């Protein structure tokens, strides 16, 4: 079976920048609290009438296509990861398909939150491995800012998230020691409600009620301590799983691209795995946590900054709501 490789990568963030100081005007918080606990300095928020989850994905996809030297019409399949789709249904994949003018190819939405992009990459990789498709567009795109609780009650969560999109084009690799070497996916639904938005809720007679708005269950809930504990366990576990599978050790990693959850989580992974800071990419200070978009945005920036070169061993890893966690090991 053939490997897939990342032939192109790109990202898009909305123009509007929202600093911690801007958030101080909306709720009882401080630049110091946010920086200290999360490492975030600013994030980007979408602008109504300009940005949508689907069209931000399309903007990132155009960049990825350009780098791959392909045109939209060359794409055989779209895999679109998001937890903030444009509509309840249909998925954002078909909306992006329309935007890119890609009639009749399959478009699949993946709903695995912070691990969504790596799950989506794994799906695309399987289609290339089996020979069913040659060029797969894998996208992560999120608009969080329209669904955050900007009251003091929601501040621990709302300061963390930002909007943006990233994309890669997967094509067949030249040899079995190049490209995506393996992907590793996990989930544990035992913790489903520890990081979740539970309303609207299709199990209620009325999906959306005034009560849901009043009790704020339409906004994300996060049990920060539980998330932290599981994240710092599963991140190293799933990175080691990928290394072991391919006969590598942590010091072989040239660039680790972790989901940008929180700088404290990233620093913890870097230290417990004995990696040097130069081998671990972080851009959370600029974008906050963009969930399914965070890994491809980080990958795109790392590549653009020359921090990933031909032949490098690159590891992608994520943990998030579900709980879900995942990794991918790539020989660039
Ligand atoms: N600004 C100012 N004060 C705040 C804010 C805020 N934005 N949010 C909470 N506080 C206050 C709380 O009200 C509390 O005040 P009190 O002591 O008077 O009661 C105090 O700060 C400490 O609150 P905690 O919830 O205990 O804060 P903690 O130190 O646990 O930090 C945090 C919260 C940053 C969320 C932490 O739990 C954490 O790092 N968790 C990991 C989760 C995470 O990073 N998730 C990322 C998204 S999920 C993912 O991508 C995997």
Automatic annotation (TrEMBL):
It is an enzyme of class 2 (transferase). Coiled coil: none annotated. Keywords: Acyltransferase, Cytoplasm, Fatty acid biosynthesis, Fatty acid metabolism, Lipid biosynthesis, Lipid metabolism, Multifunctional enzyme, Transferase. Its EC number is 2.3.1.180. The active site is at 114, 259, 289. Its main location: cytoplasm. It holds the Pfam family ACP_syn_III_C. The last Arg residue of the ACP-binding site is essential for the weak association between ACP/AcpP and FabH. This is Beta-ketoacyl-[acyl-carrier-protein] synthase III. It comes from Pontibacter silvestris. The lineage of its organism: Bacteria, Pseudomonadati, Bacteroidota, Cytophagia, Cytophagales. The gene is fabH.
